[in-house]
Specification:
The protein has 356 residues and is an alpha+beta fold. The protein has four helices and 13 strands. The strands form three sheets. A nine-stranded mixed β-sheet has the order 3-4-7-8-9-5-6-1-10, covered by helices on one side. It has a two-stranded parallel ribbon with strand order 2-11.
């Protein structure tokens, strides 16, 4: 009998999650067995994280999203509800291993964020006076409260407690129920784990806005009022520089993940490359091109009083110096020999008025 029990246990451990059923919970819906439904907690259109699937640590920059100075959840409302429903409060507290009297303090230490990956959790519900629970995948865009280790702890649109999935649950070998969504795939389901090697709670989370165009820090246990200044998105969310794969520029990337097309600092505001026009007018003239040879009769004589300056480059000295107020010639690119004096005047410059 004992041997048979050991064999059975070993077979179960070897099978892992054989026969496990995972419920897909679509964004914007509370799902089965809600504690207290809430609206306005989710973001249906959110730029999915480029790195998804497998396990990710709770302090990874850009793992979660949010809107700066805006909370996706109302923790106080949840606490008020549970205080007036002691049966649900007892079940809710039991899911997290705390006493019902400690719910207020527990919730006050949580942080509201948005999921940016389809995330594997254990979802705890309440039905017919009893606690329920089972593995679930929450769609990216779902609002959650996370604890000091970055682990999803409350599903905001229903108030349900969330805990980490059981160890024998694997997204790749399970059966799924519930409505699917565009971009869902077993390989992109993410399990979030506490940071390895970290002692103590996470002090701040680096979030990304729903369009993944900027980042900002949200201190732990705050609801947006203390969000930090706008920063560049984390490196994993930025389009790679030229010369490397650029899925974001063409709108590619993961399945169901919109390309953000976020420009890099080199894409705008940087100095032009050598030899390129610096004023953006599209001039195709090449500085340093020699003019007509001497003696050809095509050189332009020096301007006389009251005569506008020439509009064609000349290789001969232009005679008198430019009068005060005349436009300074643009520097030409280096060429063999000394540069012509009036080479900078090209046809696109307006002709100055000479004093009389």
């Amino acid at each position: 009998m004992a041997f048979a029990a050991l064999v059975g246990a070993g077979a179960l451990a070897g099978c892992g999650d054989a026969g496990a059923t995972i419920t897909r919970l679509i964004v914007g819906t509370p799902g089965p067995d809600p504690y207290t439904p809430q609206t306005g907690t989710d973001q249906r259109r959110i730029a999915r994280r480029k790195q998804a699937g497998g396990t990710r640590e709770g302090d990874s920059p850009g793992l979660y999203g949010g809107t700066r100075h805006v909370a996706s959840c109302d923790p106080r409302r949840l606490v008020r509800f549970l205080r007036t429903h002691p049966d649900k409060a007892a079940a809710w507290a039991g899911a997290h291993g705390i006493a019902p009297a400690g719910i207020g303090g527990f919730v006050s230490r949580l942080t509201p964020v948005l999921l940016r990956t389809d995330t594997l959790v254990t979802n705890h519900g309440f039905r017919d006076g009893r606690a329920t629970g089972g593995p679930a995948v929450l769609q990216a865009g779902t609002g959650v409260l996370i604890n000091e280790h970055g682990i999803p702890t409350v599903k905001c649109n229903c108030g349900n407690p969330l805990t980490r999935p059981k160890q024998n649950i694997s997204p790749g070998n399970a059966r799924y129920t519930g409505s699917s969504w565009n971009g869902f795939g077993e390989r992109t389901v993410t399990e979030i784990t506490p940071p390895s090697g970290r002692k103590g709670p996470i002090s701040s989370f680096v979030l990304v806005d729903p369009r993944a165009t900027m980042g900002f820090a949200r201190p732990r246990a705050t609801s947006g009022e203390s969000d930090g200044p706008v920063t560049a998105p984390p490196p994993d969310e930025v389009v790679p520089p030229d010369g490397s794969p650029t899925p974001g520029r063409s709108g590619g990337g993961e399945s169901g993940s919109p390309g953000t097309g976020t420009p890099l600092p080199d894409d705008s505001g940087g100095p032009p490359s050598p030899g390129a026009p610096s004023d953006g007018t599209g001039d195709t003239g090449v500085p340093g091109t020699p003019g007509p040879p001497e003696g050809s009769g095509e050189s332009t004589p020096p301007p006389s009083e009251g005569t506008p300056p020439p509009v064609r480059p000349s290789t001969k000295p232009s005679g008198p110096a430019d009068p005060p107020g005349a436009a300074e010639p643009r520097p030409a690119a280096p060429a063999s020999g000394p540069p012509p004096r009036s080479l900078g005047r090209i046809q696109r410059d307006p002709a100055p008025t000479w004093p009389i």
